[in-house]
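Section 4.2 – Deliverable D4.2 (structural model, holo form)

The reporting period included a commitment to supply a predicted holo structure for the target in complex with 2-oxoglutaric acid. Inputs used:
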Amino acid sequence: MTDAALPLFGAAETGAHVTVDSMFATAHRVHLDAHSWVEHVPGWLTGADRLFDELLQDAGWEQRRSWVYGERTVEPRLTAEHHDLTTAPETLQDAARALSAHYGVTYDRLWLNLYRDHHDSTGWHGDGASTRRRECVVPVLSLGAARRFLIRPTAGGRSSSFRPLAGDLVVMGGRCQTDWRHSVPKQTAPSGPRISVNFAATSQARPD
Ligand SMILES: O=C(O)CCC(=O)C(=O)O
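Output (structure tokens):
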């Protein structure tokens, strides 16, 4: 392990390390336009399978409903939420601290999505309620199966596609939550389960 790899679980306790790269050495930033960017950080977290198994078992998944075009519909995924980061598993608290140190935003809550298979999805949206500042930084950690993550201009147009693997981070920055819309589409190719961990900051939920 390098100095840059922050251990989140000890090997003696678990038989496997879960670590994050505090240097974000593999980060690759794509500028969507003059104001918005997406950063892909391949392999940011090691031990992703162990964390996936733990969350799948213990996250407290719930089925939510939401309003779509005036109809209350069952969301095509399961969700778990920690309004207070201190109630989240320590691994995720430590991951949030590493993200806060790197991006200069205090991530103090999070929600998780469980895509049970390729039929589950997240439609085009911006994270409006949790990002009321003009510029925000929103990290999403992927665990489990790889799924496509798309982002396209709010006004419409071509989408940019990312395919985060287990342990990868995708970070949306700048005006991504207003000028852009993102989604995880359903797919025809069969897929195993995927969990996304979405880090949120109370500070970003307040307008500047
Ligand atoms: O699962 C993902 O990668 C993104 C999830 C997302 O956009 C959301 O929950 O708002």
